[in-house]
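Retro notes
What went well: the complex prediction finally ran end to end.
Inputs used:
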Amino acid sequence: MKATKYLFIICLCLLALVPQPVAAEEEINIGEVVLGHIGDAYEWHIADIGETTVSIPLPVIVKSSTGWHVFSSAHLENGAEYEGLYIAKDGEYADKIVERDASGQEVRPFDVSITKNVLALFINSALLIGIMLGCSRWYKRHVQEGAPKGGVGIIEATVLYIYEDVVKGCVGEDYRRYAPFLLTAFFFILINNLMGLVPFFPGGANVTGNIAITLVLAFCSMILINVPGSKAYWKDAFWPDVPLWLKVPVPLMPVIELFGIISKPFILMMRLFANIMAGHAAILSIISIIFIMAKVGGALSASMTVIAVVFGIFMNLLELLVAFIQAYVFTLLSAIFIGLARVKHEN
Amino acid sequence: MGLLTPDPGLLFWMVICFGVVFFILAKYAFPVIIGMVDKRKEYIDNSLKAAREANEQLQQVKAESEKLMAKVQEQQTAILRDATATRDRIIAEARERARVEAQKTLEETRHQITAEKESAINDVRRQVAILSVDIAEKILREKLSDSDEQLAMVNRLMDEANLNTNTEEP
């Protein structure tokens, strides 16, 4: 795909540009910064001004061996321990809340904390619901007024684009049943992608670039693909029209088909996750060049700053495109897979 | 790698969030939007159809009105022609009647004048006759003392009377 090609080129550029002047420890720091922004966190980090860290503490909700614990993540700052819980520095559960069991081993309690990604998820979901309900309220208020303009018009055009082209075109007959899920998936991914590109507080979280998010979405797709699958689809999967020896003593074809059934949603999950995550990583890396080069100073630093800003703008624009394309591709592929699972044999 | 292992807490919240978003949007947002668009489409289709029908009707009405106009114009010309004819006829009749009337009046006047004249002449004649008889009587009374004289007188008078009437009435 075009977007990934550009991404690849930019990564190559980065590899060519970054290494020589940077000290080993600086490189590790940048990696941590980038991974820290891509990953989840118990507080919403906004900025470091001098030595002070500006961040929004978020509620921690944990059920450990000593029962439920609900407290602000401010108590866990700088590796502090609170009610027997602390954030692991390394090991299997790095950056997660852990406790020590009787043998002194770090174990993970049942953790449903409102983390950065969860809060972003809440905000984005509320935003999406607000936008959509605002839209439908507009329709209720303006019953006989023709087509909407402005924001409602954009939403309507997008909804229709997905509904007419993707849902109606790919699912085939009975597309109405699938339209709500596919439309919700599209707008859910789109708004999370777009909010992820906003660099300050309500945005900036890497929600759709988190595998848990894409896992849920892909799992929903998988259910919708397979559960209403037609008889012909299941027959093709487990008793296809191939020579008998391909399926009887060793069920070769059914295993391959089963793999296909699993890999379809798996690919949906990985594509969205990898694209968004890589986009965030690329933008953060490019912006990090400025800070790496600042140590070198002089003309090189200035010119690299200009290049980094130009590339950063370019990447942001590219990510804007990717945000839409990935939401579209996820919806389109889900619709196509649903359509494929509803085949009927002509004979 | 940490990035590739889904976090159970996030999974839990994602299921709830996506479920809520899906429920609300599927129930309150998308059906409304799609329904309204469908309704609008239907409305536009109906409006187009209605407009086409109205246009056809308009054309029909136009043709009819044109036909009617032509007819009306024809009638108008006919009426005007009739009116002109009637007017001319009435005027001619009136003129004729007036002429006849005038003729009659003239005739009558002439008759009257003639009659008056005759009666006036008769009157004068009678007066003259009475006057002459009176005069004659007076003269006769003076002159006629004897019977010869009287006789001669009568004869002469008779002659004169005859002459008079002859000269007077040609």
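What we learned: Residues 59-113 of chain A form one domain.
What to try next: split runs per interface for comparison.
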